[in-house]
C-alpha cells in the first residue's frame, strides 16, 4: 500500500473500531512521524492490501507494531492480523468536534 509522500493527510474515519475516541464519519489529520505507544495511527497489513486502518499503537515488535482498536467488539487488529506497518500518527480531529488527540 502506497500512502504517498505527503507529510500531512486528511482522513475520513469509517466504522466503529476506534469508538469512543473517534466515531464513524469523523475527519482527522495524520502526520508522517515515528509513533509512540498510545498514539492513534494509520496502519496497513500485508494480508489486507489496499486497506488503511486507524488503530491505537500498543507496542513495537520486530515486524512492525502491535495495534488495537479502542472498541474490542468492533475491531479487527493485531490480535488477529499480527503486527501492522505504521505510516502516520493522527494528531487532530477536524470534524465534528475539533480537538488534539
UniProtKB/TrEMBL annotation:
<protein>
    <recommendedName>
        <fullName>Peptidase S24/S26A/S26B/S26C domain-containing protein</fullName>
    </recommendedName>
</protein>
<dbReference type="InterPro" id="IPR015927">
    <property type="entry name" value="Peptidase_S24_S26A/B/C"/>
</dbReference>
<dbReference type="GO" id="GO:0012505">
    <property type="term" value="C:endomembrane system"/>
</dbReference>
<dbReference type="InterPro" id="IPR019533">
    <property type="entry name" value="Peptidase_S26"/>
</dbReference>
<feature type="domain" description="Peptidase S24/S26A/S26B/S26C">
    <location>
        <begin position="12"/>
        <end position="72"/>
    </location>
</feature>
<dbReference type="InterPro" id="IPR036286">
    <property type="entry name" value="LexA/Signal_pep-like_sf"/>
</dbReference>
<dbReference type="Pfam" id="PF00717">
    <property type="entry name" value="Peptidase_S24"/>
</dbReference>
<dbReference type="GO" id="GO:0006465">
    <property type="term" value="P:signal peptide processing"/>
</dbReference>
<dbReference type="GO" id="GO:0004252">
    <property type="term" value="F:serine-type endopeptidase activity"/>
</dbReference>
Amino acid at each position: 500500500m502506497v500512502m504517498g509522500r505527503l507529510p500531512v493527510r486528511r482522513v475520513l474515519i469509517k466504522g466503529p473500531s476506534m469508538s469512543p475516541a473517534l466515531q464513524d464519519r469523523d475527519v482527522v489529520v495524520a502526520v508522517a512521524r515515528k509513533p509512540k505507544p498510545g498514539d492513534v495511527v494509520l496502519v496497513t497489513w500485508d494480508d489486507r492490501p489496499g486497506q488503511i486502518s486507524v488503530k491505537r499503537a500498543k507496542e513495537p515488535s520486530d515486524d512492525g507494531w502491535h495495534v488495537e482498536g479502542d472498541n474490542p467488539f468492533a475491531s479487527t487488529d493485531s490480535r488477529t492480523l499480527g503486527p501492522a506497518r505504521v505510516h502516520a500518527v493522527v494528531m487532530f480531529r477536524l470534524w465534528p468536534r475539533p480537538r488534539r488527540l
